[in-house]
Amino acid sequence: MSDIHKKKRRNTSVHRSGKKNLYRKSRYYQRQRKKQLTAALAGGVVLLLLLLVLAVRGCASKKAEEATSSASVDTNKNAGTNTGVKNASEDPDESQNTGEDGKTETDSGLPAEPVSLTVSVVGDCTLGTDESFDYDTSLNAYYENYGADYFFSNVKSIFSEDDLTVANFEGTLTDSEEREDKQFAFKAPAEFADILTSGDIEAVNTANNHSHDYGEQSFTDTLAALDAREIVHFGYDETAVMEIKGVKVGLVGIYELNDHLERTEQLKQNIARVKEDGAQLIIVIFHWGNEKEEIPDSNQTTLGRLAIDEGADLVCGHHPHVLQGIEEYKGKNIVYSLGNFCFGGNSYPSDMDSMIFQQTFTIDQNGVKEDNITNIIPCSISSEYGYNNYQPTPAQGEEADRIMNKINERSSWITPASSD
């Protein structure tokens, strides 16, 4: 390294050394100044926050005073004039609550906004067999061969798209051997209730002439099997109220065959009971009429119309094993006989025509609207021609037209209610 370079390094070194002392001294003052600035800044922030809190409190207080003043003015106005405007507790349009399903409803429990609810009803479902029948062609044999999903597979899409499907459960689910002394007695194991759940059937009527085929124990066993699958059951003095889409649907089942018009008081009491339980839509199911009769008798027409008079929104029946007509009474429908549906009571019935009766109800804050939207789906109790394979199936083409013509013709045979 040259002397010039050595000198330059020394001068540089000295220069750096002198600058280092000055830097140390300046850092001390900088630290002190920084502390002072930090303290001042912190104090300013605290003061600013305090001012903001006081300002917010002041605005809130002012708004509260204005609201109180406004309410006082409104009260004085209402006290001094009769405007005819009801307060919220008096006006069902204004007094609204939110139900468990999140829908808005009025104090009466009725929905504030219209709710559409589609109900499907079908006839006799005998999910078992008589021990005297040929077992190889029985419904029980079909269950063993094909399982629970087989029976309603051709109508399940219809039932899965509605809001409620109701069937007549005719028979017993029991292991009891105490057969009643009668011509036909039907039973099946408890697991056959799976046929209903696999078919999207949510509720069944149990008031019919085969519900006790193996004594009282068989009826108890049947209800237990239905309960185990959470299938709603009703009939006799047992009523049910289901909440569907925020609407309470009351279900009543009446067994008319032996007592006829003596069931009048039971009918009135059961409808009154579901009303007390909050039902906003009421469906009454009857097991009535005469086998193979195509026209309802006077007991049917009297009780069916009485049910409407007492508050039913729909009346459906079964037992004749054939289709009967439909009457519109006071804007409500009475379907006198739905016929058989999934029927294990006969392998070769003479009449396999059936139907699914659907009605779509609209319920709003004024109750059930009188729109009467119905959909009749003609069916056969079998997917095969000439014998019963226990698989109800919608009819197609000319067959559907034939069954609809039969329903319309038999409806025309019903004598209208007098206008008195």
Explain briefly what this protein structure is.
The chain is built from 8 helices and 19 strands. It is an alpha/beta fold and 420 residues long.
Q: What's the mean pLDDT score?
A: 84
Order of helices and strands: HEEEHHEEEHEHEEEHEHEEEEEEEEH
The description of the largest β-sheet is:
9 strands, mixed
Beta strand %:
15-25%
Poorly predicted parts? 1-30, 62-95
How many DSSP H or I helices? 8
As a whole number of angstroms, the C-alpha radius of gyration is: 39 Å
Helical proportion, percent range: 25-40%
Number of strands: 19
Shape: globular
- N-to-C terminal Cα separation, in Å? 135 Å
Category by helix and strand content:
alpha/beta
Notable features of this structure?
nine-stranded mixed β-sheet, globular, 420 residues, alpha/beta, six-stranded mixed β-sheet, 8 helices
